[in-house]
TrEMBL record:
Subunit structure, as described in the record: Forms a cyclic heterotetrameric complex composed of two molecules of XerC and two molecules of XerD.
Domain Core-binding (CB), chain residue ranges per copy: 22-113
Family to which this protein belongs: Belongs to the 'phage' integrase family. XerD subfamily.
UniProt entry tagged with the keyword Cell division: yes
PANTHER family: PHAGE INTEGRASE-RELATED, TYROSINE RECOMBINASE XERC
Localization per Swiss-Prot or TrEMBL: Cytoplasm
Keywords of the record: Cell cycle, Cell division, Chromosome partition, Cytoplasm, DNA integration, DNA recombination, DNA-binding
Catalytic machinery residues: R174, K206, H278, R281, H304, Y313 (o-(3'-phospho-dna)-tyrosine intermediate)
Name of this protein: Tyrosine recombinase XerD
Main subcellular location of this protein, as a coarse class: cytoplasm
InterPro entries to which the protein is assigned, alphabetical: CB, DNA_brk_join_enz, Integrase-like_cat_sf, Integrase_catalytic, Integrase_recombinase_N, Integrase_SAM-like_N, Recomb_XerD, Tyrosine_recombinase_XerC/XerD
Primary role: Site-specific tyrosine recombinase, which acts by catalyzing the cutting and rejoining of the recombining DNA molecules. The XerC-XerD complex is essential to convert dimers of the bacterial chromosome into monomers to permit their segregation at cell division. It also contributes to the segregational stability of plasmids.
Organism encoding this protein: Arthrobacter ginsengisoli
Length: 334
């Protein structure tokens, strides 16, 4: 690999000549040679680095910087801003492209600092732009009810489908947790006549972490009907698996099959939104919080290791809070 890698292309006839190379350009060339020869970067990756750093070099030249040691943190953050709004004359980049460019810039400055080209690393605490936090998708209670009631229960598979969907919404279980259940993981009857509390299900989450989750009466009745009238018929077609939810051949149902069951029910209910098994989990959490449940209780039910993960659902319920406030406070609206 020879020749400068950051050099500007010759200017077309009639246009201003390309800017002269600076010490920054030459130091960037050294870095790219290091990445290509010593680090063995793929050709396409190296080409992307070269393109990203060429834009950075132009940005620095436009701010009057000529030597690596002159570059400040302000120069780096200014470039990051230019990537998103195109204020340097280049194209405004999306989150992923901008993040890739910032990674290239951070690697460059780290290399310069390690090699003694610069006394410090001005990009050490400049981070790539992150995509905005996507709120979980939840559907309304009415939409959930329509989906559940769209499933017919006059066949063994219909009883299974209703039980599965009722279970997902009643417990907030991940689809992998639901299809991984065995019959022995379910306790529909506590054994005490005076105990009228909800049934209990044992779930195994990420890292095989076990948790006990209540199962509401609708889910318990649907499961009971499936276990009594549906599962025996499906089990007779298989080899005696202990799995709770069985496919038509008597084996454990797959996650893809469970997704198809929900999709079919949503179509029957005329739900046009994109609904997946995880949508029922999101709806479970959102509806609990809207009903007044404490976020730490929801954290336990969902099996989140940190309450921070659960708190994203409070952003969803903020819309409901605003609506209630606007309707109830005497001076909310002028």
């Amino acid at each position: 690999m020879t020749g400068p890698l950051i050099a500007e292309p010759p200017a077309p006839a009639g246009q201003a000549p390309a800017r002269p190379l600076t010490a920054i350009d030459r130091a960037m060339t050294d870095y790219l040679q290091h990445m290509g020869v010593e680090r063995g970067l793929a050709v396409n990756t190296l080409s992307a680095y070269r393109r990203d750093l060429a834009r950075y070099a132009t940005h620095l030249a436009n701010t009057g910087r000529e030597r690596p040691a002159e570059i400040t943190r302000h120069d780096v953050t200014g470039f990051v801003q230019a990537l998103s709004d195109g204020s340097d004359g280049g194209s405004a980049l999306g989150i992923r492209s901008a993040a890739r460019t910032v990674v290239a810039v951070r690697g460059l400055h780290k290399f310069w600092a390690l090699e003694g080209v610069t006394p410090t690393d001005p990009a050490s605490d400049v981070h790539p732009p992150m995509p905005g936090k996507r709120l979980p998708k939840a559907i309304s209670v009415g939409e959930v009810t329509r989906i559940l009631e769209a499933v017919g229960t006059d066949t063994a598979t219909g009883l299974r489908d209703r039980a599965l969907l009722e279970f997902l919404y009643s417990t907030g279980a991940r689809i992998s947790e639901a299809v991984g259940l065995d019959v022995d993981d379910i306790t529909l009857h506590a054994g005490q006549a005076e105990d009228t509390g909800p049934a209990i299900v044992r779930l195994f989450g990420k890292g095989s972490k076990e948790r006990l989750v209540p199962l509401g009466s609708f889910g318990a009745r649907a499961l009971d009907a499936y276990l009594v009238r549906g599962r025996p018929l499906l089990s007779a077609k298989g080899k005696g698996t202990p799995a709770l939810f069985l496919n038509a051949r008597g084996g454990r149902i797959s996650r893809q099959s469970a997704w198809t069951i929900l999709k079919t029910a949503a179509e029957k209910a005329n739900i046009t939104k994109d609904v997946s098994p995880h949508t029922l989990r999101h709806s479970f959490a959102t509806h609990l919080l809207e009903g007044g449940a404490d976020v730490r209780v929801v954290q336990e039910l969902l099996g989140h290791a940190s309450v921070t993960t659960t708190q994203v659902y409070t952003l969803v319920t903020a819309d409901t809070l605003r609506e209630i406030y606007a309707a109830a406070h005497p001076r909310a609206l002028g």
